[in-house]
Amino acid sequence: MAFWNDAASEPKRQHRFLVYMDLGNNGFVPYLAKSVTKPSFEVSETEHKFLGNTYYYPGSLTWNEVTCTIINSIDPDGQDLLLNALEKSGYLFPNVQREAIERSPGTINKEDSLDALGEVKVAELDGEGREVGVWTLKNAFIKSATFGDLDYAGDELLNIEIGMRYDWAAYESLKGGNGAYGGP
Hints:
CATH topology: Pnp Oxidase, Chain A
CATH architecture: Roll
Number of strands: 11
Number of domains: 1
Strand order of the largest sheet: 1-6-7-10-11
Strand content: 35-45%
Radius of gyration: 21 Å
Distance between the termini: 31 Å
Number of helices: 3
CATH class: Mainly Beta
Order of helices and strands: EEEEEHHHEEEEEE
């Protein structure tokens, strides 16, 4: 039965969500998230032409990048959280490269990048704030960060946009669905 005919049934709403990121256990709080794109995927295709007809075959699946916009608060400082995660990913700022080379130089790598971001979850909520579905990004790392623009003419909140790449996403339906997809 459709949700508009049944008072007990309720559609998911765009503004009911929380984003969880460990950021190396550095103090990210879910209320800082302003928006997030949910995981999505694309399946490539291969075409085959035969006797004037074109036939298509599915190829490999690619999960698309997720973008999260957060409010840049003073405490915790969003810029500090992300730059700290960048360092933990293995990036060496130029002012410390010389001394790092003498120790053990490193570069950004997947293992450190995964640890720096930690587990990323996007929880969909019902009208009472209970989780009804949870997306978990598997092997997610920060691909990009944009720290916003400053403008004397504006009084809007300062945002940070974070692009995240991941290998795949798991979804768990917590109410009335078929269960979990993509493993623990």
